[in-house]
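FIELD: query
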Amino acid sequence: MYTLYHHGSSVCAAKVRFAMGEKGIAWEGKYLDILAGDQFKPAYLKLNPKAVVPTLVHDDIVIPESTVICEYLDMVEPSTSLHPSDPWQHAQVRYWSKACDEELHPACAVLTFVVSHRHTIARLGKEKLEEFLSSTPDLSVTSDWKAKKRLFVENGFKAHGAAEALKLYDGYLKKMEQELQGHDWLVGDRFTFADVSMTPYVNRLAMMSLSRMWIHGRLPNVERWFERIQKRPHFKPQLLDWVPEQLTADLRENGARSWPDVARILNIET
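FIELD: result
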């Protein structure tokens, strides 16, 4: 029995759901509303002290961290492995997943809060907002995420590091553009965990009305790659359908409001 603690807006949870869908793994979901603070409840903190999602429970084994979960699943369900057997291609996949974990994910957290989530959680009211910000563990997305999240929520793109996170994100789109030259997928000629890893991060931009970072000829290989991704049968049910309707609207509308700042920082003509 696989039980996944997850949330619709979490890119890491989306990564695991997408991988499980592609592998044909049946699972039971435990949905946590992370914008209301469900992840800070004591019962969940026992499973995941960082107070983040996802967490996988396989029978009596508890596994946090999305990439570790997906690698574990490829070990216990090897017939549908998303990692190539060729050592060099396997290493290339690991480069992408490592980059997601170490650089792109923190940047995505910054961008999501700056562009959208800060407006959504503001509806909690002053007292609940303060409780939400104070409840973040000292060690979470990064070792200093608790303090930085407050700055991003309060100051948006004016916060130190916000523009830099956006530029880092854009840099990875440009790396994708290079790797996809003459190829349908990021590693070799097959869909792999490298594509699974990047999908939630590109999709987050699309959901926040920021697809102009690659469309209209800016990054045509990325545009075609994402079109292929969207046609995969597990994309919509695992990346879009789990996101609550109101949150989908918030991401879309808040992102559209933020596009002028994004375009200015990246020097994109509008």
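FIELD: remark
The longest helix spans residues 87-122.
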